[in-house]
Amino acid sequence: MDSPFIYDKYVSGKNFIGRKNECAILQNLLTQHENVVISSPPKTGKMSLIQQTLFNMRVSGKGFRVGQFSVLNVRSFGAFITRFGSTVIRMNASTPSEYSAYAGKYLANTHLVFDQDRFSDSDEVLSLNWDPDENDLLEVLRMPYRIASEKNEPMILIIDEFQNIMMIDEGDEILNCMEEVIKEMRTSLKAPFSYIMCGSMINAMKEIFYGGRHLYRCVEHFSLQDVDEKDIVEHLVKGFLASGKVIDRDLLLGACRLFRNNLWYMNHFVSICDSKSKGYIMEPILMEALDCILAIHEPRFRSIMNSLTTHQVNLLAAIIDGCPRLSSSEVVRKYALNSSANVKRVKDALMKKEIVTFDRNDVPTIIDPLFEYWVKKYFYEKKD
Fold this sequence. Notes:
The chain has 16 helices and 11 strands. The strands form 4 sheets. It has a 5-stranded parallel beta sheet, with helices on both faces. It has helices at 20-31, 46-59, 77-92, 96-106, 116-122, 134-151, 171-187, 202-209, 229-242, 249-258, 263-275, 283-306, 310-320, 329-334, 340-352, 369-379, and strands at 36-39, 65-70, 112-113, 127-128, 155-160, 193-199, 220-222, 246-247, 280-281, 356-358, 364-366. It is α/β, with parallel strands linked by helices and 384 residues long.
């Protein structure tokens, strides 16, 4: 029997819980062919939300083509161009002859070609026959708009780990060209095409999109809200009942609060509980499961802390202690942070490492809830 506690892949259908309003909002944005930015920490449900929304759109009778690629392992200008163009062509074609026809029609004036030998050897739809230039990028970026307009069929392109574009030397050029093409196509073709730009490094995504630096007024920012803890508890209780087990709802509520309603952590946690129990699940089983999940992630947490300087460790301690004004003279003195100017540098470093994020009121949040628990209890040895 399939486990109801899924944490190794995105979920949809009966395993998707909560976020009905978010699905409706995202569906409306995509139906209007808006470009959407979704940024949230890893494993918080971005792809599940997207796939559930696309599922709902199909069920409602909406036709569209969808493609997806990740920038996670893209580190060069040429690799981005070929990855982008290949994905768009694969959205609309399925045979080598069709790949060649699309490349010839839409990319004739570029250095991008369909090479039959390269395709046979490495399954590459597009190859570069010369060093790529800005014209190659612009033509590739225009291609999905032209195809969607000619076919009069909506197209959605999902770009995952979008923030990694800034790891490419020409990252600014790529984003500037995307903005140029979006604005150009919005006024000329008005094609039924839209992007979903996903990022798991929330501070890096903020740096790209906030402050008008890139893609200004070209995207809609979509906030991923927490799933209500009552919905989570109800889903988990039903999952345990399906396997003939019972668990106290208050215990699950406590776990939800520890993991800050992170469904990936919760499903992993309760799957461990499920494997260690028979019948009624008591608190000792949950504590044993917590030790197990901490053991799995502890090497990663240790690596994070070993990468920090002394000042970064001290500022993180101040955040753990809930200090309201990190740049105050009292905090600077108590945590040996040298100066308020140094606090600013250390804050920036912790944000760059995606350990902490700050809201508009400069209130810090440790991004990973399990890391926050571990670092508080085991690194700083704080007592509840």
